[in-house]
Amino acid sequence: MLDASITPAVKVLLTPLVKQIAKTKVTPNQLSVVGFAIGMLALPLLAFQHWYLALTAIVINRILDGLDGALARHQGTSSAAGGFLDICLDFLFYAAVPVGFALADPAQNALPAAVLLAVFIGTGSSFLAFAIPAEKYQLSKPQFEYKSFYYLHGLTEGTETILIFVAFCIWPQHFSWLAYGFALAGSITVFTRVYGGYFTLKKKAVEPTNEE
Fold first, then answer.
1. How far is 30 from 85, CA to CA, in rounded Å?
2. Beta carbons of 44 and 100 less than 8 angstroms apart
3. Are residues 95 and 87 in contact, defined by beta-carbon separation less than 8 angstroms?
4. Active site residue: 3, 65, 86, 90, which one?
5. For the chain, N or C: smaller number of CB within 10 Å?
6. Which conformational region is residue 126 in: left (phi greater than 0), alpha (psi within -120 to 50 degrees), or beta?
7. Is the pTM of this model over 0.70?
């Protein structure tokens, strides 16, 4: 919900750093992999209840995730392969955070973490599944033209997910209720994406083409 508003501001903030990185031999894919590796450190840190160290790893991961795509666009090296790598690593990272909290306190956190992971599967699959036919029908994406694939809106997007991860780390004692609340919001996202995506594609499939 917030990505369309937040992303342009973040892009402006990252531009000076991107220009500096562009002077080195660092590639966007290298940034993606390094960011993923740092982000995955959050899992053991959360498991051992080092909340603020885990939060640091999460924040660094998100900064590098913003930099890799910005660097690719700056260098003119954006590609489907890079976009594929980035989104795969993102979803693996997203899944690691609830697992870390489940390991930190299995008795208290395992069930809400499992519920949250199930919703993540729903939001991720509806998000990615729509991108395939969207590419086929060449649907426009005016708010996210820089994305390598169609970016489907929802109540819970990347910005909201990072905000809830931050909340998890600041208030770990309330992980259960925070996770259930975000899972509910995510369920609304799944419903609206499936409903809206289905009827959008159904309508598109019966539209007449411009070919004679």
1. 11
2. yes
3. no
4. 90
5. C
6. alpha
7. yes
pLDDT for the residue numbered 111: 98
Closest CA to 200 of 125, 143, 114, 136: 136
pLDDT on residue 212: 42
According to DSSP, residue 24 is labeled: S
Q: How far from chain centre, in Å, is Cα 19?
A: 24
Location of structure tokens 């976009």: 83
192 CB-near residues (< 8 Å, 6+ apart):
154, 155
In degrees, rounded to 5, the angle at the alpha carbon of residue 146 between the alpha carbons of residues 185 and 120 is: 25
Active site residue 105: no
pLDDT number for residue 141 = 59
Neighbours of 171 (CB within 10 A): 12
Where residue 76 falls (left for φ over 0; alpha for ψ -120 to 50; beta otherwise) is left
The dihedral formed by the CA atoms of 16, 39, 132 and 192, expressed in degrees to the nearest 10: -100
Distance CA 198, CA 6 (A): 27
User: Mean pLDDT for each consecutive 10-residue tract of the chain (212 residues)?
Assistant: 68 84 91 97 98 98 91 87 91 97 98 97 88 77 54 77 96 98 95 88 72 44
* Token pair belonging to 2: 């917030």
CB contact set of 184 (below 8 Å; sequence gap of 6+): none
Measured torsion, CA atoms of residues 12, 17, 23, 26, in degrees rounded to the nearest 10: -110
